[in-house]
Amino acid sequence: MKNCEEKSKRFLIGIFLLMVFTMPIKLKANVYYIFIDNLSVPEQMLIKSIQGIVNQKVKNGDESLHSVYTINRDVDLDWLVDYRSQYGFSTNLKQFSTLYSYGKQYIDNYVLWSPGNTWTLNIACTYAALHQAMVLTPQLASDLNIAAEKTLLMDFTQDQWYYPDMNSGAAETITGKLDGYTWAMNHLLPQCDSTKIITLKDNIPDLRDMIFFDNIFTINLDPLNNEDEIALLNTILSQYPVGATMLGWADGSFATEPGQDEVTVERAFVKILSENNMYFVPSDYANNLSFHGLFDFPSKLEQQEKTGKYEQGKKYVCFIASDGDNLQYDMNYMRTKMWENSYRGKVPVGWTISPRLYEFAPFIAWYYYNSAAQDDFNDTFVAGPSGFSYAYPSSLDDNALIDFLQKTDMTMKEMDMSCIVSIDITGKEQETYQKFAEHTSAKGVFLTEKEHNAYLPEYDYVFQSGNHDLGLIVEMVRVDDQPVSDLVNQIRLNAFFNKFVFVYFNVWFDNLDIVYGIYQDLKADTSYRVVGPAEFMDCLMQYHLGTAIEPDNSSKLTPSDLTLHQNYPNPFNPETVIAYTLPAAGEVELNVLNTRGQKIKTLINNVQSTGKHQVKWDGTDDQGRKVSSGIYFYQIKFDNKIKTKKMILLQ
After folding, report:
1. pLDDT on residue 126
2. In 391-528, alpha helices (H)
3. Any bridge partners for residue 281, and if so which?
4. For the chain, percent of residues with pLDDT exceeding 90
5. Residue 378 belongs to what domain range?
6. What order do you get walking across the sheet with 68-71 strand by strand?
7. Number of domains forming the structure of the chain
8. Residue 466 confidence class, pLDDT cut points 50, 70, 90
9. Is residue 488 part of a domain?
10. Are 258 and 236 spatial neighbours (Cβ–Cβ below 8 Å)?
11. Is 472 in the same domain as 592?
């Protein structure tokens, strides 16, 4: 355990130093760019290997080289134009033959991979990255006559593999994918970047330059159905320190059984990663990370967030966009479908975005911050699931969770964020998000999926730790492509029972017009306020903690209604505090009930003055006996009114 803690500390320090001391590179030469969308898969893989190796040389100080940029979709060209405008470098379009000729000037070796066994590609790329070699298929190697100029280090199309190379190593017989990845784990993984690993479907070119740029071990193993591959995956992951990062995305084709789909694969993969105390950065189609990583922010990231003042009688709604943890979404779909949408900026939205852009693509983060709508604070950024990276926080062990929260807090401060969206397993919400309150300075957490409500006292809640309060709310309404009227009715129904409604919209449905329609409907009703995430959490905490203020901000409210606050701590052991606010002096009764509604303890039964009061319950019944662990209710009766809340005792 101590060794894991030391590894975690070293990794955290390394990330911090990377963030603090990464300086912007001023390119002294042209940027060579090439369209790869019309190339064959073997040609794409060759170009990506050249790109990663050349850009690594630029990163390591050879700024006279021409860095390489690949265009696989229209938005890649948009980003290049923006870079050129901001940094002032010139660009030069290359064809396949001319870029290959340029790259081979600086690369002496090559390896072969098998298009008939595509699983060899990831292994070939990992090996080639460590040996500064290009990757080719036998046919492409023949077409280019590369053997006349360069040295073949390894032929992964054969069943005899050698280490360190085919000219000097002992042969090992490889009979298939499991043998191949086991060989790679034994010989290649120890030499690779110890803080990052990639999972990548065999035919995807986009992320592949990062293998060469940072010498990253790369896999594509089944996390769902193949027990042998699951076992090997866990063995590989166990060799990484706490807090290592997985880039890429789980291969949806592993969903081979009835009822399984890509989401089933995703959940299985993220669960395995979290259980191995690793963090996921979705990025399979994140193109040109080896180029984006050469630049720092043009200026400091800052966003303006409106503070909240809870108003009695108002109902609060907050729209949060999904999928911002996904680098390829941040780089592609977010810009083309969301950011350039005519409705963007006309409705308050919390845009999830990956804090890891700070590390992998600073300019792209800066672009969004610099172009956000300032009117009415309608574009604000929150940390995409589940903070520092995509993980199930409740699946992390205690040390890894603290590490995760420290990194979350550090990157959120650098990205000037105050709120988090979290995706998590169920069952440990109270324990996990109490730690969020203790180890981050975040204002609030938006927890997706309604199932979490079964494990919390109510949909919205406040965790307290010293001087820091953390608001939390569970998703109530999800927007896909339903009619606006149906969604408005869902929101109004939820608002009948809850003053705060978290609406999560699935961006892949290109549904910002639907969100705008909902906003217009609610805006016409003066009892509703649609606000940004920071303002929403301010109001939520003021409501729960009894610190609500009048709209004119002049004084604290005189209580106008009976208020029963959530107990704290919750769950608790051995005692908890229950607070309540009386609108006038009078007789009040406060009892503890079991799940059958039977009274087990009377806490208060007398006349009290107006204002806020509190009482402790020590987990005993009226006879002074300790009660068992479980769910209990506390109920207040005052002036013919009754209010009840849930609490959990853990012995």
Report:
1. 98
2. 398-414, 429-439, 484-497, 512-523
3. 247
4. 80
5. 315-545
6. 68-71, 31-35, 91-93
7. 3
8. confident
9. yes
10. no
11. no
